[in-house]
Amino acid sequence: MTHPLLAALEGGLIVSCQAYPAEPMRHPETMTQIAEAAVRGGAVGIRAQGIADIRSIHERVALPQIGLWKDGADDVFITPTLEHALAVIAAGAQIVAIDGTRRARPDGLTLAETIARIHEQTTALVMADVGSVADGIAAHEAGADCVGTTLCGYTGERPKSVGPDLEVLRELASTLPIPVIAEGRVHTPAQASACIDAGAFAVVVGTAITHPTTITTWFADAVAR
């Protein structure tokens, strides 16, 4: 049976409200306003990065929130340790997104140990961000409540596709008994729809909705002569 928190996301759009370091929009208030705008547009959930952003959004947006903490320059940087995960949850995230690959984690814990301790110490659910089918299967076996295709094309196991990695999405969705959430390079409504057709439980869109710098370059490049 699907957890009620995940059931609220099924078949819907999750908007990732994040800004890159040193950008003008890198501010909790700005990200919270974007999240509030996403609610008005029909989002069913919010994905946010950083303790201050997560806390602010939690206080003002009633939708389920997937929280993460990007830290470090190593391969594993999405909520890389148990300590990071617990801080994200304490800030208000009901679902914590963590690196769900088979790579070594900075604190020396295995993925299964990390997930087990999160479940033991909190009521939060765990979203494992994976980069391949093998990652997704391993994350499920490690106890993840759902998996996302977030890291497909970024770990060296898969080529970086122009749009979402529908091949991995389709295989995971047909293999795993837990929700598989599409995330990564979903830049158009047509691509989001294709993700649902491929079996996605829900779809995360970030850049195409919340990153005006990138969107501006798309249009600027299109009109440049």
Automatic annotation (TrEMBL):
Keywords: Carbohydrate metabolism, Isomerase. GO terms for biological process: carbohydrate metabolic process; N-acetylmannosamine catabolic process; N-acetylneuraminate catabolic process. Pfam families: NanE. It is an enzyme of class 5 (isomerase). Pathway: Amino-sugar metabolism; N-acetylneuraminate degradation; D-fructose 6-phosphate from N-acetylneuraminate: step 3/5. The keyword Disulfide bond does not apply. GO terms for cellular component: cytosol. One of its GO terms (molecular function) is N-acylglucosamine-6-phosphate 2-epimerase activity. Its EC number is 5.1.3.9. Belongs to the NanE family. PANTHER family: N-ACETYLMANNOSAMINE-6-PHOSPHATE 2-EPIMERASE-RELATED (PTHR36204:SF1). This is Putative N-acetylmannosamine-6-phosphate 2-epimerase. It comes from Cryobacterium zongtaii. The gene is nanE.
